[in-house]
Amino acid sequence: MHNILLTTLHSGSLNVNAGGPALSMSLTLKGLEKAGVKTVALCEQIPSDGKLIAPDLNVRFTHSGKYGTFAYVDNIHECLKKAVDVDIYHIHGTWMHHGLAISRYARKVEKPYVVSPRGMLYPQALAHHALLKKVMMKLYQKKVFAEAACVQATCKEEMEYYRALGFKNPVAVLPNPIDINGVIDREIPKKPIFNVGYLGRLHPRKRVERLIYAFNELKRVKECRLVIIGGGDKAYQTFLEAEVKRLKIENVVEFTGFLTGKEKDDAITGLSLLVVPSDFENFGNIVTEALVRGVPVIASRGMPWQELEEHHCGWWIDNGQESINQTLLEAAALPNEKRMRMGVNGKRLMYENYSVEVLGKKMKRLYEWILHGGEKPEFVYE
């Protein structure tokens, strides 16, 4: 194993409004720094309604992106030239100009690069603006992937979707990291009321209404509250609030909006159960944020979270309304002691497999293998 200091440059978004991708990128960089890898983040300027998710990272800003999804950045080449002595480049995300520009620059300076698609190659994601994405794939994105030294998938399912597109280069299966420090060692508090929660962006594809309808059934048999943590699509939030009023449950349902820091920590810690009702998610940082706090999770089979059942820390279910209804009733009927044991199991899973420190060391091993060869890491598939 080589102990020389590596310098890596990462491109993507660190705007808190980007949600999961920004959190994943920031924690990846923190893990690398703890593993002794120097990191530089190259991100576009944070808009006035945004916020830098990790001010303690080494971040350099480009001009703002233009032209929709492509997000053309007019000065990215100049910014890349200023970042000297980079050993390896890492592109976080798909379709955008920064990925194309960095892949071209890396080839020009004869340095390898890694790509993390961030769930953007799932069939459901490709179906959104399908024609545009087919054109973009043919024009440039196919080349970006094909010439990467390695692609990082967060689970084997994502790797299989990548392979199905015909790509043959190495794939590293590494989940998104979770920050366990200051959280993992806490005792799981007892909750006087059964608090059901949703955490994440509010968007029609998240299907939060399913949880509202399931909660409406639950409240008829058990004292409980529903906490919806997050914001996003204003029209969709208005629809959800209207449904809550129609069902006459507004006195036991709370919309908190986006939360950060201690407010977010307190809100998640106070949950008895987290439910992820969407049809699909690439990974779901929200699941790890709940499990590290000892909160069991109900997630649909549209997510790669069979570990919930394998490690007895949640439920992995069909994503229909009836299935969510029945599972929520089943979870609420469990004795508190059994739910607490599930919470402990979730914490153990996070500590052993998902911590920033564990995944930072694995990412470092990946970079060293790409740069120097040697024994292939067990998480890399060729």
Unreliable residue runs: none
State the fourth-level CATH superfamily of the largest domain: Glycogen Phosphorylase B
Q: Per CATH, what is the topology of the largest domain? A: Rossmann fold
- Compute the number of structural domains: 2
Mean pLDDT: 93
Determine and state the CATH class of the largest domain.
Answer: Alpha Beta
Structural class: alpha/beta
H and E string: EHEEHEHEHHEHEEHEHEHEHEHEHHHE
| Radius of gyration of CA atoms, rounded to a whole number | 21 Å
User: What percent of the residues sit in helical stretches (DSSP H or I)?
Assistant: 40-55%
Largest sheet: 8 strands, mixed
Q: Gap between N and C termini, in Å?
A: 21 Å
The global form is globular
Strand residue content: 15-25%
Q: Count every helix, treating DSSP H or I runs of 4 or more residues as helices.
A: 14
Task: Give me the side-by-side strand order of the main sheet.
Answer: 3-2-1-4-5-6-7-14
